[in-house]
Specification:
With 155 residues, the chain is α+β, with helices and mostly antiparallel strands. The protein has one helix at residues 2-39, and strands at residues 44-46, 51-52, 57-58, 69-75, 81-89, 101-105, 111-112, 118-124, 129-139, 150-154.
């Protein structure tokens, strides 16, 4: 009798664990698929993926020392296409608030990252290619731990 109760409890624990692992896998798998489909646009080619780890803390006047990320956006066959460049954090718990993340595109004005992460909106004509130089850093006024990992998404 006691043995049968123990076997039921062990089987309950095993089935619960399998359910949790399976549902977590499905959630992450479908979430990544949704993100890809939301940000993927047909006939839009990005020359290389941009991923940044552990951004540096830099004074705004010293950003000329940053190399930046260079990439090309190409419209390979659609008529006019609206594009957005978005900075997305890859961290579940961000240590750096968006208002401390700074960026500059093509040596223009320095901006702080807004809540939706959109940093660039433009239009690409059919068969047009645009060169982008993006510099991303953490404001020197930030006093917490430097921990921000993210990527550039173009849609």
């Amino acid at each position: 009798m006691l043995r049968r109760i123990m076997i039921r409890h062990i089987l309950s624990i095993v089935w619960t664990t399998l359910f949790l692992v399976g549902s977590t896998y499905c959630w992450f798998n479908f979430r990544n698929k949704d993100i890809y489909e939301e940000y993927h646009k047909e006939n839009l080619v990005v020359s290389e993926p941009i991923v940044f780890n552990s951004l540096e803390k830099v004074k705004d006047e010293d950003i000329d020392k940053l190399d930046g990320y260079n990439f090309k956006l190409s419209n390979t066959g659609s008529p006019n296409m609206d594009i957005k460049i978005i900075l997305v954090s890859d961290m579940l718990e961000e240590n750096v608030s968006n208002n401390y993340i700074k960026y500059q595109i093509n040596n223009s004005t320095i901006h702080s990252l807004n809540m939706d992460g959109v940093i660039y909106i433009d239009n690409l004509k059919n068969l047009e290619t645009k060169d982008i130089n993006l510099k991303v850093w953490i404001s020197d006024t930030y006093t917490g731990n430097l921990n921000y990992n993210g990527r550039v998404v173009v849609s």
